[in-house]
Design a protein that fits this description.
Strand content: 15-25%
Mean pLDDT: 96
Largest sheet: 8 strands, mixed, barrel
Shape: globular
Number of strands: 15
Number of helices: 13
Low-confidence stretches: none
Order of helices and strands: EEEHHHHEEHEEHEEEHEHEHEHHEHEH
Structural class: alpha/beta
CATH topology of the largest domain: TIM Barrel
Bound molecules: phosphoenolpyruvate, calcium ion
Distance between the termini: 31 Å
CATH superfamily of the largest domain: Enolase-like C-terminal domain
Length: 411
């Protein structure tokens, strides 16, 4: 007999930042019970699926009781009795039920929780691991390399550094587990080195937010830590500029921390200067989220660099298509909650790959301990995962899941 959805329940839970998010619980016809919870971002792009919050005074307006009630109510009514074997059909149904282009009626957070839970239940009912079920039987699976933010700056940080994420870009390891071990070693060494110079520091999602003087100093700290840990040959650098946060459309200028205001051409020159001086191999959201042309200028001027679109693409097929037309980038940052369903997120990833792009599956700053993103990264054959510093439970949940997947793929 076909396994179908028997019941869906939504509930309000807290994410790792103490902000409410939604969890969906799904019970199948044979009694399998799964849960799934959704992450949320801080530097949220304007083209992302809508996150529904309650407003009012609870949790400073960020309660999720409405989103949870939409799961237990309308979505449950719509999906009860629906077969779990076809996630695309489930996702299409809930999108149609919502009826808006950006999922603003029922909430992208409600829809994604249901989509994740349905995938998890579908895999459990089929008796296969989630990554395999998502990928389909034919697709070749690969473990991702690691990109990890180890120093935090930008609009929401206490460090005073200009850019949002200072990223370690690792590669060249035999096995995922060796790469993770290296990441831990470099992160620990970095912590010792920064503490020796600046004393105790704050952290942001596990990334170090010390009053480091400049981008150059941040990069030197990272390279020195990699060298001392014995992984100099495996470590390159990346930046998530998150530049939409720093862009003023009124005068078409970018304002980063202590740097003087810059126009697009000056900012491009800043990046190229950093590329000449350091092994900078990845630049994410170097220009604001509507500047497809600026991205293209960087791509043309910096061959060999991963030019990554996060807010630019918002894990959205139409926006990726525009990026391809403008030759804007070569890498998609895939965040499942930007899309709002797993099918749409995977379609975006596959479309990008078919057009020669790499995919980085990325967590959000407001994560839960749900480890879905690990399975998703393997299922889409992502080149990398961006899962942060391995010193937080919500991040290590994904790393630990990847260790298990590696073991399963080897056996
Ligand atoms: C990111 O872009 O890597 C990121 C974590 O963004 P946000 O803070 O919006 O989740
Ligand atoms: Ca980003």
């Amino acid at each position: 007999m076909k396994e179908v959805i028997q019941q869906l329940r939504g509930r309000e839970i807290l994410n790792a930042r103490g902000k409410p998010t939604v969890e969906a619980e799904l019970i199948t016809s044979s009694g399998i019970t799964v849960t799934a919870s959704v992450p949320s971002g801080t530097s949220t792009g304007k083209y992302e699926a809508f996150e529904l919050y309650d407003g009012g005074s609870r949790y400073e307006g960020c309660g999720t009781r409405k989103a949870a009630a939409n799961i237990s109510g309308e979505i449950n009514d719509c999906l009860r009795g629906v077969a779990l074997e076809d996630l695309r059909a489930i996702d299409q149904r809930i999108c149609a039920l919502d009826g808006t282009p950006n999922k603003s009626r029922l909430g992208g957070n409600a829809l994604l929780a249901v989509s994740m839970a349905a995938a998890r239940a579908g895999a459990a009912a089929a008796g296969v691991p989630l990554y395999r079920w998502l990928a389909g039987e034919q697709r070749k699976l690969r473990m991702p390399d690691l990109t990890a933010t180890v120093i935090a700056g930008g609009a929401f940080s206490f460090s005073g550094l200009a850019f949002e994420d200072y990223i370690l870009v690792l590669s060249g390891f035999e096995q995922f587990s060796d790469e993770l071990e290296a990441l831990v070693a470099i992160r620990r060494q970095l912590e010792r080195d920064v503490r020796a110079k600046y004393g105790d520091f704050l952290e942001d999602g596990g990334a170090i937010a010390a009053p480091i003087a400049s981008d150059g100093e941040a990069f030197e700290f990272m390279l020195e830590a990699a060298r001392k840990a014995g992984f100099e040959a495996n470590a390159a650098l990346g930046l998530d500029v998150a530049s939409s946060q720093m862009y003023s459309p009124e005068d078409d200028l970018y304002r980063f921390g202590k740097l003087p205001p810059q126009n697009r051409e000056q900012l491009l020159e800043t990046y190229l200067g950093l590329c000449r001086e350091y092994p900078l191999r990845l630049i994410e959201d170097g220009f604001h989220e509507d500047d497809f042309e600026g991205f293209g200028m960087l791509k043309a001027a910096a061959p060999g660099i991963q030019v990554v679109g996060d807010d630019l693409f918002a894990t959205n097929l139409a926006r990726i298509r525009r990026g391809i037309q403008h030759d804007s980038a070569n890498t998609l940052l895939l965040k499942m909650n930007q899309a709002g369903t797993i099918t749409e997120a995977m379609d975006a990833g596959r479309f990008a790959q078919e057009n020669g792009y790499d995919v980085i599956v990325s967590l959000r700053s407001g994560e839960t301990t749900d480890d879905f993103a690990a399975d998703l990264a393997v299922a889409v054959g992502a080149r990398q995962i961006k899962a942060g510093s391995p010193v937080r439970a919500e991040r290590n949940a994904k790393y630990n899941r990847l260790l298990k997947i590696q073991a399963q793929l080897e056996s």
